[in-house]
Write a structure and sequence with these properties.
The protein is mainly alpha-helical and 62 residues long. It has one domain. 79% of the residues lie in helices and 0% in strands. It has two helices and no strands. α1 packs antiparallel against α2.
């Protein structure tokens, strides 16, 4: 068991978290009566980071 064997699983976890953040972002934008630009901006940054690092971990360590 090497130290890098958990990273593909962590990549899959980050992709799942990114999908959940994306669904939350869609629901947040659709409920425009409580729209907050700051929350949407944070969600877009988190979505990009989670999906980007998740795919990168899968490509490098799988």
């Amino acid at each position: 068991m090497g130290v890098f064997e958990f990273l593909p699983g962590f990549g899959i976890f980050l992709i799942i978290v990114g999908i959940i953040i994306g669904i939350w972002l869609i629901l947040h934008v659709e409920s425009a009566y409580e729209f907050s630009f700051r929350n949407a901006f944070i969600a877009i940054i988190a979505l990009s980071l989670c999906l980007g690092f998740g795919i990168e971990f899968l490509m490098i360590f799988y």
